[in-house]
């Protein structure tokens, strides 16, 4: 009975601390620009309240309150992640960016890689000005690097770090882009190693292979000068990754359907190319990228 009473008392005190905290701190963002300031203030307040009540309820109650504070912080982060994933799945690129931009000083790798993704996707929107695209692209890499520092065991961190490096290469010239190719491949492969069932990582590895399979001759010459063994691949290798991605998660991404069709075109298999390009054209579009994929698939089909 004493243990039950103590637990009930702890819950009551936590609720009271939470109510007072909301009264004093409700105007501040969840995570301030200086770090987890609001969370730290609330922890400090609850801790102070707990210490002031120790003579009445004892150390066991204090421990229960402290544990509750940690759980509360974890729940808040989980809420941010849930909102972010919902907005991403709904194609709400700008709303997603606005949400995560409020938490850009987070130390949580799960928040940071999603912020990198949001910055990158915002940069990809057609109405984003060119100078803004460049700024967002470099910012995305910055947050992806921070995420990698904090959690190198997360496959999504490796995936988005590689994507962001690739995007930055578009602004730094062909030499840098080729030099980065080895790093990009390494992180895509690490993402696949950490999660072999992630269709997106498999797709991106296929894109890497496709890109170097169709590399123009002048870029091959630059690569040969830079490296004794320059990056290279084949359409057959690209096809294996695209097909494996589709096997893992059928119809998960319009661009994977498109590249299956394009790769079969490169391999002179028009029957299979027609099949996948038609699927890409007919897939319901949810994002601006989906619409671009449909347009490209239709153009290729009309030219066949």
From TrEMBL:
- What name has this protein been given in UniProt? Regulator of microtubule dynamics protein 1
Instruction: Give the UniProt keywords, A-Z.
Output: Cytoplasm, Cytoskeleton, Repeat, TPR repeat
Compartments in which it is found: Cytoplasm, Cytoskeleton
UniProt-listed SUPFAM superfamilies? TPR-like
**Which family is annotated?**
Belongs to the RMDN family.
Q: Which organism is it from?
A: Anolis carolinensis
Molecular functions per Gene Ontology: microtubule binding
GO cellular component terms, semicolon-separated: cytoplasm; mitochondrion; mitotic spindle pole; spindle microtubule
Complex formation:
Interacts with microtubules.
Please name one Pfam family that this protein belongs to.
RMD1-3
Gene3D superfamilies assigned = Tetratricopeptide repeat domain
Q: Has the keyword Transport been applied to this entry?
A: no
The record ties this protein, via InterPro entries, to: RMD1-3_a_helical_rpt, TPR-like_helical_dom_sf
Would the keyword Cytoplasm turn up in this protein's UniProt record? yes
């Amino acid at each position: 009975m004493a243990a039950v009473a103590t637990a009930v008392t702890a819950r009551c005190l936590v609720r009271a601390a939470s109510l007072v905290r909301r009264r004093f701190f409700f105007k501040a963002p969840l995570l301030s620009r200086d770090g987890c300031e609001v969370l730290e203030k609330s922890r400090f307040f609850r801790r102070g309240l707990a210490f002031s009540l120790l003579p009445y309820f004892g150390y066991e109650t204090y421990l229960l309150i402290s544990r509750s504070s940690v759980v509360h912080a974890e729940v808040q982060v989980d809420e941010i992640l849930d909102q972010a994933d919902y907005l991403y799945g709904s194609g709400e690129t700008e709303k997603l960016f606005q949400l995560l931009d409020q938490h850009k000083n987070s130390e949580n790798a799960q928040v940071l890689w999603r912020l990198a993704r949001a910055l990158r996707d915002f940069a990809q929107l057609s109405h984003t000005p060119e100078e803004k695209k460049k700024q967002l692209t470099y910012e995305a890499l910055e947050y992806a690097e921070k995420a990698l520092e904090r959690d190198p065991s997360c496959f999504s961190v490796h995936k988005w770090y590689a994507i962001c490096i690739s995007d930055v290469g578009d602004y730094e010239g062909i030499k840098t882009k080729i030099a980065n190719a080895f790093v990009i491949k390494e992180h895509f492969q690490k993402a696949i190693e950490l999660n072999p069932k992630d269709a997106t990582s498999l797709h991106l590895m296929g894109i890497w292979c496709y890109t170097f399979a169709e590399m123009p001759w002048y870029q091959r010459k630059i690569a040969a000068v830079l490296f004794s063994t320059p990056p290279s691949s084949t359409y057959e290798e690209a096809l294996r990754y695209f097909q494996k991605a589709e096997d893992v998660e059928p119809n998960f991404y319009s661009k994977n359907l498109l590249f299956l069709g394009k790769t079969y075109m490169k391999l002179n298999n028009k029957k299979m190319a027609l099949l996948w390009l038609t699927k890409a054209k007919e897939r319901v579009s949810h994002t601006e990228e989906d619409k671009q994929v449909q347009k490209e698939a239709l153009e290729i089909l009309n030219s066949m």
